[in-house]
Specification:
CATH topology of the largest domain: Rossmann fold
Shape: globular
Order of helices and strands: HEHEHEHHEEHHEHEEHEHEHEHEHEHHH
Strand content: 5-15%
Number of domains: 2
Number of helices: 16
CATH architecture of the largest domain: 3-Layer(aba) Sandwich
Distance between the termini: 25 Å
CATH class of the largest domain: Alpha Beta
Radius of gyration: 25 Å
Helix content: 25-40%
Structural class: alpha/beta
Number of strands: 13
Largest sheet: 7 strands, parallel
Mean pLDDT: 86
């Protein structure tokens, strides 16, 4: 058989090297897939059962990559945003287990198996949104895997004993047995990630401690445009968020009860009965509220009380976008957001006494605080800043990853 001149080949001199021969059509596709929208993108999110900070990041990732498919362990479509409902969402086999949407945390030992069942071989870029076990997915060898880490799994690492003590004896026994295995899996699967992105310096330090990996810090997106500076002096202190032990809402309730200050509590959780039992007449519990109610209270409060330790903490930035100061415990992401004297105060000890002293210091200068300066500070954490920084990082990594993968392929023995 006689071959005609191979006009479809880019250069006949390639036959003199060990480089693979590629048709011009494939060369063109490889070089322009990103620009033409052909880049196949998968976003892996731990679970979709509510709309909290992690899900707000997921929404922004979907806006950055509208062609992306979402993979998640469990999804409750009744509790996610209308925007996410329009996306192509694929769930794991855990979704078929009765009660999974409500009791998903009890299925933690099964989650590694469920994640590794996702077939991501068709995807060029995989973005894992990590707080539960999401980074453990298996990608194609030449795909780029970027992990946006909200937090290494607290319940098997630094918050293990807090979560364990809150369980009945059967749960404590099971957690003691399964946690070492999950830790080993969690560390091992960190090597499946090409680039870690942390939502704060605090989380970056935990990634170094638990995974021995460096991370680029890109703060999560806050929809600052959804908030506006309120009018007049605030009417009450505000606590908002889950009423769970590690967030320490009891400190806010006790402090306002002792000081006789008005406190509005927005949120629900297992601590609600206890908090009501220690609250005085100046404390009002509103339970779970829709976004417009939360936004209204943020614009009218004297200050947001933030006594817990959060990996980043979007709520303080939302309060600042409303022109209201934040009184926060000096730990976690609050060190990076409540970072200027004109936007709030941080207290060094996670105690009622420390918060009372901070409230007294705040009230002495309350009339001199400029709400517009506070809002200006919040814009450092806007969605636009997040998109610019993350898209720039991914663009850079795609370029270097593609070049590196090609180099490895050329050097591979024949």
């Amino acid at each position: 058989m006689t071959l005609k001149a191979a006009t479809s080949l880019p250069d006949a001199r390639l036959f003199l090297t060990d480089a693979p021969v590629m048709a011009k059509r494939r060369v063109t596709e490889a070089g322009t897939s990103k620009e033409s929208g052909q880049l196949r993108v998968a976003i892996v999110h731990y679970w979709l059962v509510s709309m909290r900070g992690g899900e707000k990041v997921l929404e922004e990732l979907c806006r950055m990559f509208p062609q992306a498919d979402i993979f998640t362990l469990v999804c409750n479509r009744d509790r996610i945003s209308d925007f996410l409902k329009t996306r192509n969402i694929r769930t794991s086999f855990l979704q078929k287990i009765p009660g999974a949407q409500r009791h998903y945390t009890k299925m933690l030992p099964l989650m590694p198996f469920a994640l590794e069942q996702f077939d991501l071989q068709d995807y060029d870029l995989v973005l894992s949104s990590e707080s539960g076990p999401a980074k453990g997915i298996i990608t194609r060898a030449d795909a780029l895997h970027v992990c946006y880490c909200h937090s290494p799994m607290r319940y098997i690492w630094d918050q293990f004993h807090v979560y364990r003590h809150g369980l009945p004896w059967v749960g404590r026994a099971l957690m003691s047995i399964t946690a070492p295995v999950l830790r080993a899996w969690d560390v091992t699967t960190s090597s499946r990630v090409d680039v870690f992105v942390a939502n704060s310096e605090y989380v970056a330090s935990r990634i170094r401690r638990f995974y021995d990996r460096d991370a680029v810090v890109i703060h999560p997106p806050v929809a600052t445009d959804d908030f506006a500076v309120g009018k007049g002096k605030g009417e009450f202190y505000l606590y908002a968020g889950q009423l769970t032990t590690y967030k320490r809402p009891d400190i806010a309730v006790r402090a306002c009860t002792e000081a006789g200050r008005k406190l509005v509590v927005i949120g629900e959780g297992e601590q609600l009965p206890y908090l009501k039992s220690i609250a005085g007449p100046t404390v009002q519990f509103l339970g779970h509220q829709p976004f417009n109610v939360l936004r209204d209270h943020l614009s009218r409060c004297r200050a947001l009380l933030f006594p817990g330790t959060e990996d980043f903490g979007i709520l303080p930035v939302e309060a600042m976008a409303s022109g209201r100061p934040v009184l926060a415990f000096d730990a976690g992401g609050a060190r990076e957001t409540v970072s200027a004297p004109q936007v709030g105060f941080r207290f060094a000890e996670q105690t009622t006494e420390a918060l009372l002293e901070t409230m007294a210091a705040f009230e002495e200068v309350e009339d001199d605080i400029d709400p517009h300066a506070i809002r200006a500070h919040s814009l450092k954490f806007s969605s636009a800043v997040f998109r610019d920084r993350l898209s720039g990082l991914i663009e850079q990594q795609l370029s270097s990853h593609r070049d590196g993968a090609a180099g490895v392929f050329r050097r591979r023995p024949g």
